[in-house]
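Sample pair:
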Amino acid sequence: MQEERAENINESVPGAGSAAVESKREVSSIQFPYGDLDDAVDFAKGVHAVGGQSCLIEQLAGHLRVAANGGAFRARLAYPRIFGLCEYERGSVTLTPLGLRIVDPSQEEAARVDAFLTVPLYRAVYEKYKGYTLPPPAALEREMAGLGVSSKQTDKARQVFDRSAKQAGFYWAGTERLTLPVVKSKPDTRPIEPPSTTTHVGSGAGNGGDDDLALDPLLVELLKKIPSTGEQWPAAQRVRWFRTFAMNVSQIYDDDSSPVDLKITVESVSQTGQS
């Protein structure tokens, strides 16, 4: 989830948490990746190349020509999740709706903007200095420390932030400030709206209805994936949908001052004794 503490980025991915744990005495309380946006996008494109929407972690490692159990690779698995591009479950990696957009050449430019702003630290810096000149490197590192970055990792956090901002297009008007990129919609693609924009859809996830609900576009796209009544929807696919939906709800609605760790569990219902 977006609001998990940094040391709990993804307990199901061995080594993922180590990328955010700076020391036993001081731990960052805000999420940020140790790898830049390009690195996270490479992972997402690797998943797409191997399995379309999902693949096994070992298959992804094979595609990237690295050892699946290598410490560096396992640590790098955390980066695309912090950018909101992937999620992990039982040895597999699955692209999120944002991840699917970023591997689409016609939507990648806009998706990079959303991915940058998905990182809690980057969004906090952007919101604080939107329309203003960024402070010099040393001062920016102190700002990051105030936002929750471990004092021993502010230099690393700032360097990766700087590279990711450039890769997402936020320096198009100059490197002294973060400026929201101007993204033009391309033929055969729907316009990409800012992360905070809501969309009105009919009740019933597009199946009709008189009432309008104001929902984030990401949630709308997920609701559209629900099969029509009467169609098959296997339990494993339903669980994956619920977890993806919960992750996006957390990213959209959670308050930075009130972290929420939401977990979805699945229990089998015994049929013993039923006629």
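The longest helix spans residues 235-253.
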